[in-house]
Design goal:
Blueprint: E1 2-5, E2 12-15, H1 25-38, E3 40-43, H2 50-58, E4 78-82, E5 85-86, E6 89-90, E7 99-102, E8 112-121, E9 129-133, H3 134-140, H4 143-149, E10 153-157, E11 178-182, E12 184-186, E13 193-195, E14 202-205, H5 210-224, E15 230-233, E16 240-244, E17 248-252, E18 262-269
Parallel strand pairs: 2-3
Antiparallel strand pairs: 1-2, 3-16, 4-18, 5-6, 7-17, 8-16, 8-18, 9-15, 9-17, 10-11, 10-14, 12-13
The protein binds fe (ii) ion (FE2).
Residues 102, 104, 250 line the site of fe (ii) ion (FE2).
Length: 274
Amino acid sequence: MEVVPLSPALGAEIRGVDASRPIADATFAGVLEAWHRYQVILLRGQSLTEDEQVRFARRFGELSPIHTSHHSETNKAVMYIGNRKKDGKIVGALPLGEMQFHSDQCYRERPAAGTMLYSIEIPKEGGNTLFANAYKAYDALPADARLRIEGRKAVQVYDYDGGVLDRKNMVAPKDGMSYAHPVARTHPATGRKALYVNRLMTHHIEGLADEESEQLLDLMFRTIERPEFTYEHRWRVGDLLLWDNRCTLHARRDFNPDENRWMRRVTIQGDRPR
Ligand SMILES: [Fe+2]
Protein backbone atom coordinates (compact mmCIF):
# COMPACT_ATOMS: atom_id res chain seq x y z
CA MET A 1 0.00 0.00 0.00
CA GLU A 2 1.24 3.44 -0.96
CA VAL A 3 -0.15 6.83 0.16
CA VAL A 4 0.38 9.76 -2.20
CA PRO A 5 -0.88 13.26 -1.23
CA LEU A 6 -3.33 14.86 -3.70
CA SER A 7 -2.74 18.52 -2.83
CA PRO A 8 -1.15 20.76 -0.19
CA ALA A 9 -4.65 21.42 1.24
CA LEU A 10 -5.82 17.86 1.94
CA GLY A 11 -6.43 14.49 0.33
CA ALA A 12 -4.32 11.45 -0.54
CA GLU A 13 -4.47 8.69 -3.10
CA ILE A 14 -4.10 5.18 -1.72
CA ARG A 15 -2.51 2.77 -4.18
CA GLY A 16 -2.37 -0.98 -4.04
CA VAL A 17 -5.73 -1.62 -2.36
CA ASP A 18 -8.59 -3.40 -4.13
CA ALA A 19 -11.77 -2.40 -2.29
CA SER A 20 -13.80 -5.18 -3.93
CA ARG A 21 -11.90 -7.84 -1.97
CA PRO A 22 -11.71 -8.52 1.77
CA ILE A 23 -8.93 -6.38 3.26
CA ALA A 24 -6.52 -7.60 5.97
CA ASP A 25 -6.80 -5.79 9.32
CA ALA A 26 -3.24 -4.48 9.14
CA THR A 27 -3.84 -3.01 5.67
CA PHE A 28 -7.12 -1.50 6.78
CA ALA A 29 -5.42 0.12 9.78
CA GLY A 30 -3.17 1.93 7.27
CA VAL A 31 -6.18 3.04 5.24
CA LEU A 32 -7.90 4.39 8.35
CA GLU A 33 -4.77 6.21 9.47
CA ALA A 34 -4.45 7.83 6.04
CA TRP A 35 -8.11 8.88 6.15
CA HIS A 36 -7.66 10.58 9.53
CA ARG A 37 -4.46 12.26 8.43
CA TYR A 38 -5.50 13.39 4.93
CA GLN A 39 -9.30 13.73 5.49
CA VAL A 40 -10.11 12.63 1.94
CA ILE A 41 -8.84 9.37 0.47
CA LEU A 42 -9.03 8.25 -3.13
CA LEU A 43 -8.72 4.75 -4.60
CA ARG A 44 -8.56 4.82 -8.39
CA GLY A 45 -9.50 2.18 -10.92
CA GLN A 46 -11.92 0.30 -8.68
CA SER A 47 -14.63 -1.99 -9.97
CA LEU A 48 -17.33 -2.39 -7.35
CA THR A 49 -20.81 -3.85 -7.09
CA GLU A 50 -23.20 -2.22 -4.62
CA ASP A 51 -22.62 -5.04 -2.12
CA GLU A 52 -18.84 -4.75 -2.39
CA GLN A 53 -18.95 -1.01 -1.81
CA VAL A 54 -21.23 -1.48 1.20
CA ARG A 55 -18.88 -4.11 2.62
CA PHE A 56 -15.87 -1.79 2.28
CA ALA A 57 -17.80 1.14 3.78
CA ARG A 58 -18.82 -1.03 6.76
CA ARG A 59 -15.16 -1.32 7.73
CA PHE A 60 -15.30 2.36 8.70
CA GLY A 61 -18.37 2.01 10.93
CA GLU A 62 -22.14 1.56 11.00
CA LEU A 63 -23.85 2.85 7.89
CA SER A 64 -26.20 5.82 8.00
CA PRO A 65 -29.61 5.33 6.38
CA ILE A 66 -30.98 8.06 4.08
CA HIS A 67 -34.07 9.75 5.55
CA THR A 68 -35.60 10.72 2.19
CA SER A 69 -36.98 8.42 -0.50
CA HIS A 70 -33.74 8.80 -2.45
CA HIS A 71 -32.07 5.62 -1.20
CA SER A 72 -31.48 2.53 -3.32
CA GLU A 73 -34.18 -0.15 -3.27
CA THR A 74 -31.68 -2.71 -2.05
CA ASN A 75 -29.92 -0.78 0.74
CA LYS A 76 -31.11 2.28 2.70
CA ALA A 77 -27.59 3.61 3.18
CA VAL A 78 -26.96 3.64 -0.57
CA MET A 79 -27.99 6.52 -2.79
CA TYR A 80 -27.50 6.95 -6.51
CA ILE A 81 -26.59 10.52 -7.37
CA GLY A 82 -26.97 11.66 -10.93
CA ASN A 83 -29.10 12.38 -13.95
CA ARG A 84 -29.58 9.01 -15.64
CA LYS A 85 -33.12 8.73 -16.98
CA LYS A 86 -35.73 6.02 -17.07
CA ASP A 87 -38.80 6.58 -19.30
CA GLY A 88 -37.69 10.20 -19.77
CA LYS A 89 -37.56 10.89 -16.02
CA ILE A 90 -34.41 11.51 -13.98
CA VAL A 91 -33.96 8.65 -11.50
CA GLY A 92 -31.01 9.84 -9.37
CA ALA A 93 -30.88 12.15 -6.36
CA LEU A 94 -29.37 15.68 -6.48
CA PRO A 95 -29.06 15.23 -10.23
CA LEU A 96 -27.98 18.55 -11.71
CA GLY A 97 -26.13 21.76 -11.33
CA GLU A 98 -23.71 23.51 -9.07
CA MET A 99 -23.81 22.90 -5.33
CA GLN A 100 -22.33 25.12 -2.64
CA PHE A 101 -19.95 23.94 0.08
CA HIS A 102 -21.59 21.82 2.76
CA SER A 103 -21.14 18.88 5.11
CA ASP A 104 -23.49 15.92 4.57
CA GLN A 105 -26.44 15.53 6.96
CA CYS A 106 -25.27 18.39 9.21
CA TYR A 107 -28.96 19.13 9.96
CA ARG A 108 -29.33 15.76 11.70
CA GLU A 109 -28.56 15.02 15.36
CA ARG A 110 -25.98 12.42 14.32
CA PRO A 111 -24.68 13.43 10.90
CA ALA A 112 -22.67 11.12 8.66
CA ALA A 113 -19.03 10.83 9.70
CA GLY A 114 -18.00 9.84 6.22
CA THR A 115 -19.38 9.79 2.69
CA MET A 116 -18.06 7.31 0.15
CA LEU A 117 -18.68 8.13 -3.49
CA TYR A 118 -17.97 5.75 -6.36
CA SER A 119 -17.89 7.09 -9.87
CA ILE A 120 -19.74 5.05 -12.51
CA GLU A 121 -20.31 7.57 -15.29
CA ILE A 122 -18.94 11.12 -15.63
CA PRO A 123 -19.40 14.00 -18.07
CA LYS A 124 -16.48 14.95 -20.34
CA GLU A 125 -16.21 18.35 -18.64
CA GLY A 126 -17.30 19.78 -15.29
CA GLY A 127 -19.00 18.15 -12.33
CA ASN A 128 -15.76 18.29 -10.32
CA THR A 129 -16.03 18.02 -6.54
CA LEU A 130 -14.19 20.57 -4.40
CA PHE A 131 -13.02 19.76 -0.90
CA ALA A 132 -12.11 22.26 1.82
CA ASN A 133 -10.01 21.62 4.92
CA ALA A 134 -12.08 22.77 7.93
CA TYR A 135 -9.16 22.31 10.37
CA LYS A 136 -7.05 24.78 8.45
CA ALA A 137 -9.98 27.19 8.22
CA TYR A 138 -10.45 27.07 12.00
CA ASP A 139 -6.74 27.62 12.61
CA ALA A 140 -6.67 30.54 10.16
CA LEU A 141 -9.54 32.47 11.78
CA PRO A 142 -8.49 35.69 13.51
CA ALA A 143 -8.18 35.20 17.29
CA ASP A 144 -11.13 37.50 18.06
CA ALA A 145 -13.42 35.54 15.71
CA ARG A 146 -12.35 32.28 17.37
CA LEU A 147 -13.28 33.83 20.72
CA ARG A 148 -16.67 34.97 19.43
CA ILE A 149 -17.64 31.49 18.24
CA GLU A 150 -16.29 29.73 21.34
CA GLY A 151 -19.04 27.55 22.86
CA ARG A 152 -21.63 28.73 20.29
CA LYS A 153 -23.92 26.59 18.21
CA ALA A 154 -25.20 27.11 14.69
CA VAL A 155 -28.57 25.97 13.35
CA GLN A 156 -28.22 23.72 10.30
CA VAL A 157 -31.17 23.18 7.97
CA TYR A 158 -32.04 20.72 5.23
CA ASP A 159 -32.58 22.85 2.19
CA TYR A 160 -31.56 21.22 -1.05
CA ASP A 161 -34.53 22.63 -2.96
CA GLY A 162 -34.44 26.32 -2.14
CA GLY A 163 -31.56 28.64 -1.38
CA VAL A 164 -29.04 26.41 -3.07
CA LEU A 165 -27.09 29.34 -4.46
CA ASP A 166 -28.59 32.26 -2.56
CA ARG A 167 -28.68 32.30 1.25
CA LYS A 168 -31.48 34.87 1.16
CA ASN A 169 -33.83 32.15 -0.12
CA MET A 170 -32.98 29.61 2.57
CA VAL A 171 -35.88 27.81 4.23
CA ALA A 172 -36.57 28.42 7.93
CA PRO A 173 -35.41 25.74 10.38
CA LYS A 174 -38.07 23.17 11.22
CA ASP A 175 -38.35 20.09 13.42
CA GLY A 176 -36.68 16.99 12.09
CA MET A 177 -34.98 18.87 9.29
CA SER A 178 -32.74 21.13 11.38
CA TYR A 179 -30.35 20.82 14.28
CA ALA A 180 -28.02 23.10 16.27
CA HIS A 181 -24.39 21.93 16.42
CA PRO A 182 -21.16 23.55 17.67
CA VAL A 183 -19.80 26.14 15.23
CA ALA A 184 -16.40 24.50 15.74
CA ARG A 185 -16.37 20.80 16.51
CA THR A 186 -13.64 18.54 17.84
CA HIS A 187 -12.85 15.49 15.73
CA PRO A 188 -13.25 12.36 17.89
CA ALA A 189 -10.24 10.57 16.37
CA THR A 190 -7.71 13.38 15.89
CA GLY A 191 -8.76 15.74 18.71
CA ARG A 192 -8.38 18.69 16.31
CA LYS A 193 -10.93 21.51 16.00
CA ALA A 194 -12.67 22.13 12.69
CA LEU A 195 -15.22 24.71 11.53
CA TYR A 196 -18.64 23.10 11.18
CA VAL A 197 -20.62 25.76 9.31
CA ASN A 198 -21.35 25.98 5.60
CA ARG A 199 -22.95 28.22 2.99
CA LEU A 200 -25.57 25.71 1.86
CA MET A 201 -27.11 24.62 5.15
CA THR A 202 -26.07 26.85 8.07
CA HIS A 203 -28.97 29.16 8.90
CA HIS A 204 -27.64 31.25 11.80
CA ILE A 205 -25.51 31.21 14.94
CA GLU A 206 -27.65 30.90 18.07
CA GLY A 207 -27.68 33.77 20.56
CA LEU A 208 -26.30 36.45 18.24
CA ALA A 209 -28.06 39.33 16.48
CA ASP A 210 -28.82 38.48 12.83
CA GLU A 211 -26.25 40.92 11.53
CA GLU A 212 -23.41 39.67 13.72
CA SER A 213 -24.31 36.07 12.94
CA GLU A 214 -24.28 36.70 9.18
CA GLN A 215 -21.03 38.66 9.42
CA LEU A 216 -19.24 35.91 11.31
CA LEU A 217 -20.64 33.21 9.03
CA ASP A 218 -19.51 35.13 5.97
CA LEU A 219 -15.99 35.43 7.39
CA MET A 220 -15.92 31.69 8.09
CA PHE A 221 -17.27 30.76 4.65
CA ARG A 222 -14.65 32.91 2.95
CA THR A 223 -11.91 31.38 5.10
CA ILE A 224 -13.07 27.82 4.38
CA GLU A 225 -13.12 28.54 0.65
CA ARG A 226 -9.62 30.03 0.42
CA PRO A 227 -7.87 28.33 -2.54
CA GLU A 228 -4.94 27.16 -0.40
CA PHE A 229 -7.35 25.21 1.81
CA THR A 230 -9.17 23.47 -1.05
CA TYR A 231 -8.59 20.64 -3.49
CA GLU A 232 -10.60 20.21 -6.69
CA HIS A 233 -11.18 16.62 -7.69
CA ARG A 234 -11.58 15.78 -11.34
CA TRP A 235 -13.39 12.46 -11.52
CA ARG A 236 -12.43 9.40 -13.52
CA VAL A 237 -14.67 6.38 -13.89
CA GLY A 238 -13.76 3.86 -11.16
CA ASP A 239 -12.76 6.48 -8.56
CA LEU A 240 -13.72 5.55 -5.03
CA LEU A 241 -13.46 8.54 -2.76
CA LEU A 242 -14.15 8.81 0.96
CA TRP A 243 -14.37 12.16 2.68
CA ASP A 244 -14.67 13.02 6.35
CA ASN A 245 -17.70 15.25 6.99
CA ARG A 246 -16.37 16.09 10.46
CA CYS A 247 -13.40 18.07 9.18
CA THR A 248 -14.03 18.80 5.48
CA LEU A 249 -16.66 20.48 3.34
CA HIS A 250 -17.42 19.72 -0.27
CA ALA A 251 -19.01 21.48 -3.23
CA ARG A 252 -19.85 20.59 -6.81
CA ARG A 253 -19.17 22.41 -10.05
CA ASP A 254 -21.81 22.66 -12.73
CA PHE A 255 -21.76 20.37 -15.76
CA ASN A 256 -23.56 19.87 -19.06
CA PRO A 257 -27.02 18.46 -18.20
CA ASP A 258 -27.15 16.61 -21.53
CA GLU A 259 -24.28 14.40 -20.42
CA ASN A 260 -24.67 11.66 -17.86
CA ARG A 261 -23.17 11.76 -14.39
CA TRP A 262 -23.81 8.75 -12.17
CA MET A 263 -22.34 8.06 -8.72
CA ARG A 264 -23.05 5.56 -5.98
CA ARG A 265 -22.96 7.03 -2.48
CA VAL A 266 -22.74 5.25 0.86
CA THR A 267 -22.83 7.20 4.12
CA ILE A 268 -21.18 6.15 7.39
CA GLN A 269 -22.87 7.05 10.66
CA GLY A 270 -21.17 9.57 12.96
CA ASP A 271 -21.55 10.67 16.57
CA ARG A 272 -23.28 13.81 17.73
CA PRO A 273 -20.81 16.66 17.07
CA ARG A 274 -19.20 18.14 20.18
FE1 LIG B 1 -22.92 16.40 -0.21
